[in-house]
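Section 3.1: Structural characterization of target chains.
Under the original work plan, the team committed to producing a structural model for every single-chain target entering the pipeline before any wet-lab resources were allocated. The record below documents one such target. The sequence was received from the expression subgroup and is listed exactly as submitted; it comprises 157 residues.
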Amino acid sequence: MRLNVFQRLVRNWDTVHPYNAAQIIHITGQPDEQNIRAAWQTTLTTLGLGPVHVRGPDYHFESVNGSASLYRLAILDPESSLDEYVSAQMNAPFAEAELPLRPFLQHQNGSFYLGLVYQHWIADSASIQMLMREWFVRIYDPAAAHNLPARAAPGEI
């Protein structure tokens, strides 16, 4: 796929300071960490997402091909500040070969936060919302999940 104008601009900004973003869902109830981990791994595998490789004006996602378990779900201390964690992650650069998605879970009293910090140039907010929806559905209603790889929109912005 070819980098669009926004992606090229944000990648330039990334050389000065990370330009990351985050999406977070607040869910009532107790999290099943094992199920949440498995759902994340299945989401990556099914959508064909993995590390992103850039060569000149082109990029592509490397499919995890059975290695989804390498991409960990961060479990935050319930007493830690979610705001401070997200702020730190948004300001932490992603390594070139690293998965440009950092999922996390934080328990609270009777609820939990499920979130994803991502390298912003790889996707817009709507795309990450779709990814979060697929992850959520795989946790709570796997039969309703899409079972096709993600597709990039054609053309440039």
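The two ends are 13 Å apart (CA to CA).
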